[in-house]
Design goal:
This protein is α/β, with parallel strands linked by helices. The protein folds into two domains: 2-174 and 237-373, Alkaline Phosphatase, subunit A, CATH 3.40.720.10; 430-500, Arylsulfatase, C-terminal domain. The chain is built from eleven helices and 22 strands. It has helices at residues 2-22, 50-58, 72-81, 109-115, 241-254, 288-309, 336-339, 357-360, 386-393, 410-413, 485-500; strands at residues 25-31, 60-62, 65-66, 119-125, 153-157, 169-170, 173-174, 184-186, 218-219, 222-223, 227-229, 261-266, 316-322, 364-367, 375-377, 381-382, 423-426, 434-437, 440-443, 451-452, 457-458, 466-469. It has a ten-stranded mixed beta sheet, with helices on both faces. It has a four-stranded antiparallel beta sheet with strand order 17-18-19-22, with helices on one face. Strands 3-16 form a two-stranded parallel sheet. A hairpin with a 7-residue loop joins strand 17 and strand 18. Helix 4 packs parallel to helix 9 (386-393) and helix 5 packs parallel to helix 6. The longest helix is centred in the middle third of the chain and has 22 residues, at 288-309. Bound molecules: 2-acetamido-2-deoxy-6-O-sulfo-beta-D-galactopyranose (NG6) and calcium ion (CA). 2-acetamido-2-deoxy-6-O-sulfo-beta-D-galactopyranose binds next to loops. 2-acetamido-2-deoxy-6-O-sulfo-beta-D-galactopyranose binds at residues 32-33, 71-72, 93, 127, 160, 162, 212-213, 225, 271-272, 324, 330-331.
Length: 501
């Protein structure tokens, strides 16, 4: 009898396991500031990215895939919530002590997967705020964290690599805190006695660019944005960040071979400060930016290896993209401006911060060896659609008011529909927004500076309306607004209608 029960139990477990495993695992890999021209599979001639190329060759390489915004916080907010960032105040680039900006009571991307029975995790950069106030105690539990918006497990750093606190957080706690050396963070004024880049530039191992800030507390020889004291044991070593993330990624995957999982791996590369591990320093010949991209590519190879070793490589969907376009000088003198001559953009104009395509058109690869036929697609796609697409994939209903700007594009994502979205709004704010429809792009007139000399990027701002035919002119060189006034009117009206909703 006991034997029989045991046998039944074994059968039952085997059955549920097999059943569960029929659902694919899903891994979102989001690079930070990786450009459309940065990968060899997207045409880079200056840098080989063999692991990502292999991923692209096994799946679909999208040529018309977009981040929602040309900077991190708004772009990631949109991906997580399915809401255009300009619908909610306070979704611009956040300081490192910001409070959580994702509503905890609304549908989020990870919640879609949780509702489908998945285990969910985020490992890497966060930059969407933590806790319910700015003045928080970094030495005890911090809530809400990513765990309150849908992730069962989180291993993150709070903001960006160039912002304090330079620490890792696991679930609700900063790692390696010490009550005798409490962490204090302040974005208004200096705290404690740590040297700053401003007072002690001779202590820096990488100079900050003039007029870019990045001259507050020095951690690991690098001046940061914001002030921090204490937490000596908790502070990261930049050269180890990616090893740390990838260790946790590998562990998470290996621990979840029996239950479908969704994992967001938010890499830090090639965002500043670029301070790659020793094995990558100098390897690209393009300065630390190129080295950081080689390091990112290496992490993808590690993930693929782990999937293979655990027999998961065939039934895992991998979506690799970037949160916004590329920038060379974003605060540190790290050799990028001499190493690169525009290759990071491919054929695009603009870059990070810009309304031109360089701001938001990004590498966008989807692989699922079990189901997807390898190839290329020109379908128009946006990261804002992940929520509605996967909700549809799992036959979930999205309630009115949830993820209002997310559209079901699962067929385009899986290569079955070659058209994709009909309309995309790009930009950080309503005032500096662009609209894409079919081959056309319209940038609304605005008063912003045409050129950001700090970062050396054309912003796409003009007091005149701009109209480009992206099919014929991907580099947005010929403004056709005066030639096609009807098209301008049509897109202007549509943009106003969507942004006034
Ligand atoms: C800017 C920083 C830049 C970078 C960016 C955020 C200055 C002058 N520049 O404000 O270095 O940190 O914010 O990048 O402070 S993002 O990819 O996270 O949006
Ligand atoms: Ca970014």
């Amino acid at each position: 009898m006991i034997k029989k029960i045991f046998y039944c139990l074994v059968l039952l477990t085997t059955f549920t396991t097999v059943n569960a495993q029929q659902k694919p695992n899903v891994i979102f890999i989001l690079a930070d500031d990786l450009g459309y021209g940065d990968l060899s599979c997207y045409g880079s001639k200056v840098l080989p990215t063999p692991n990502i190329d292999k991923l692209a060759a096994s799946g679909i390489k999208f040529t018309n895939g977009h981040a929602t915004s040309p900077t991190c916080t708004p772009s990631r907010f949109a991906m997580m919530t399915g809401t255009y960032p300009w619908r909610q105040n306070g979704t611009g680039i956040l300081p490192g002590d910001a409070k959580m900006i994702i509503p905890t009571d609304k549908l989020t991307l990870p919640k879609v997967f949780k509702n489908a029975g998945y285990e969910t995790a985020i490992i890497g950069k966060w930059h969407l705020g933590l806790g319910d106030k700015v003045e928080k105690n970094w030495n005890s539990e911090i809530k809400p964290s990513p765990n309150e918006v849908g992730f069962d497990y989180s291993f993150i750093f709070p903001a960006t690599a160039d912002r304090v606190p330079t620490v890792f957080m696991e679930n609700h706690k900063v790692l390696a805190t010490d009550e005798k050396d409490p962490i204090i963070v302040n974005y208004q004024q200096k705290v404690g006695n740590d040297p700053t880049g401003k007072e002690n530039p001779e202590l820096l191992k990488m100079k900050a660019s003039p007029n870019h800030g990045h001259d507050n507390t020095i951690v690991n020889g690098i001046g940061r944005i914001g002030f921090m004291s204490g937490g000596q044991k908790a502070r990261w070593v930049d050269e180890e960040i990616s090893y740390t993330f990838i260790d946790h990624v590998n562990e998470f995957i290996a621990d979840h071979t029996n239950k479908p999982f969704m994992l967001c791996y938010n890499a830090t590369e090639p965002h500043v400060p670029r301070m790659p591990a020793t094995q990558f320093k100098g390897k690209s010949g393009l300065g630390y930016r190129g080295d950081a991209i080689l390091q990112f590519d290496w992490t993808i190879g590690e993930i693929m290896k782990t999937l293979r070793l655990n027999g998961l490589e065939k039934n895992t969907i991998i979506i690799l993209s970037s949160d916004n376009g590329p920038v060379l000088n974003d605060g540190y003198e790290d050799g990028a401006t001499t190493g690169y001559h525009g290759e990071q953009l491919g054929a695009l104009r603009g870059g990070k911060y810009s309304s031109l395509e360089g701001g938001t058109r990004v590498p966008f690869i989807v692989s699922w060896p079990n189901q997807i036929k390898a190839g290329q697609s020109d379908a128009l796609l946006s990261q804002i659609d992940f929520i509605a697409s996967f909700a549809a994939f799992y036959k979930q209903k999205v309630n009115a008011g949830e993820a209002p700007d997310s559209e079901n594009q699962i067929n385009a994502l899986l290569g079955k529909d070659k058209i994709g979205k009909s309309v995309i709004i790009e930009g950080n704010t309503k005032n500096q927004a662009a609209i894409l429809k079919g081959d056309w792009k319209y940038i609304a007139p605005n008063n912003g500076a045409a050129f950001n000399s700090q970062v050396g990027i054309e912003m796409g701002n003009s007091k005149e309306p701009q109209l480009y035919n992206l099919k014929e002119d991907l580099g947005e060189k010929n403004n056709l607004a005066s030639k096609y006034p009807d098209k301008v009117q049509e897109l202007k009206k549509l943009l106003e209608k969507i942004t006034s909703n």
